Amino acid sequence: MKFSIDKHEKYAVLTLEEETLDTRFAPNLKSELVLLNSTGFRNIILDIHQVNFADSSGLSAMLVGNRLCQGSNGTFVVARSSDNVKKLIEISQLQDVLEMIPSLEEASDYIFIEEIQRELGAEGE
Prior knowledge:
The chain has 125 residues and is of the alpha/beta class. 46% of the residues lie in helices and 20% in strands.
């Protein structure tokens, strides 16, 4: 599986450099998401702009990323999804589970807003 990781202070961007996210690549993606999360990245942006096809194992990998980030009080964002992948997510009724954002800039802004809200919530306790 070809991918790149761009690490920032508050989040990491994992860019999948494949046209498909299926049974061939989903296990590797899950492993990379686990590794990123276990090394301290509770906020992860999954950039799938090159992915034109995903199957149920690809969706499962995205859900693993979402669960990992939520479990560490973080945020998981799927960015720059193709129409085909968006349609699969909607058919699977996961649009309310997975945060879908059209651009990397908007995804990073979303994570910063989530971080501020968590910090404000922690101060109010």
